[in-house]
């Protein structure tokens, strides 16, 4: 069986994208994240002015309504939430990797390299930190699966590879490195050919970067070409958004002979 034949398959139904491969181990940064083993993961589109906070119950209801079984989110694997229409999802495949993306940037998160110098946002990090998904937002959700069996550290590192590719693509296409609610799910096949590493110079890492870039670019294109929405040009131009305009304190870690011993 080739990688293409055994890749992560997806279907769209009733505002939900289901990505499936039997006995996959997933690692999610989403609302109910962490590691789990399941046959499927989901990307669920929420309606405008959505205000539900019981996310587990909401996902269960949506999966049941769409005819996906079983209906319990913790039994079916990770679920992501997005304000983007699932019809705008796009996938890409390269070698042992498949990626799916949905993308909307109504809530951009800017990171100016000279904070406070010439910002178009009146807000600071102190009053814009978000801890919950808020209604009416876009987001960038990416699901990546590989047919390789990744070492535990390689699976975790794949999150970083996806995030780097996402930020690079978004900067090139929108001028923002991300949004306030982005989420990533990565998966691997524990029974596949082993791979100890997943960095950018590896087969899995390189394929992941290509898949994320191409799926995300097409997802952005269809969302902002085929719909009556426009991509914001700045944080102040966006419906929602934040700019991290504060500066952190930079310091040099002390040498061993300079370190202060903690009091007993």
From TrEMBL:
Keyword annotations from UniProtKB, A to Z: Hydrolase
Top-rank lineage group of the source organism: Archaea
Keyword Hydrolase on entry: yes
One annotated GO molecular function: hydrolase activity
Official protein name in the record: Adenosylcobinamide hydrolase
Species annotation: Natrinema hispanicum
């Amino acid at each position: 069986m080739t990688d293409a034949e055994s890749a992560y398959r997806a279907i769209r139904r009733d505002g939900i994208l289901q990505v499936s491969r039997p006995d996959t181990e997933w690692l999610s940064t989403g609302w109910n994240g962490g590691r789990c083993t399941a046959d499927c993961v989901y990307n669920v589109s929420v309606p405008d002015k959505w205000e539900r906070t019981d996310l587990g119950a909401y996902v269960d209801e949506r999966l049941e309504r769409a005819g996906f079984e079983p209906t319990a989110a913790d039994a079916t694997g990770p679920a992501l939430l997005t304000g983007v229409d699932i019809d705008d999802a796009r996938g890409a495949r390269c070698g042992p990797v498949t990626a799916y993306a949905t993308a909307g940037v109504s809530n951009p998160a800017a990171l100016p390299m000279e904070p406070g110098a010439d910002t178009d946002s009146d807000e600071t990090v102190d009053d814009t930190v978000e801890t919950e998904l808020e209604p009416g937002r876009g987001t960038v959700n990416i699901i990546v699966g590989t047919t390789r069996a990744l070492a535990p550290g390689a699976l975790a590192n794949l999150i970083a590879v996806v995030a780097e590719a996402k930020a690079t693509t978004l900067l090139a296409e929108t001028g923002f490195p991300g949004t306030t609610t982005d989420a990533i799910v990565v998966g691997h096949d524990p029974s596949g050919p082993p791979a100890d590493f997943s960095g950018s110079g590896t087969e899995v890492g390189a394929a992941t970067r290509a898949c994320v870039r191409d799926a995300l670019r097409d997802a952005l294109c269809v969302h902002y070409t085929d719909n009556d929405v426009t991509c914001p040009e700045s944080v102040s131009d966006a419906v929602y958004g934040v700019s991290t305009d504060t500066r952190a304190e930079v310091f040099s870690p002390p040498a061993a002979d300079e370190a202060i011993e903690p009091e007993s």
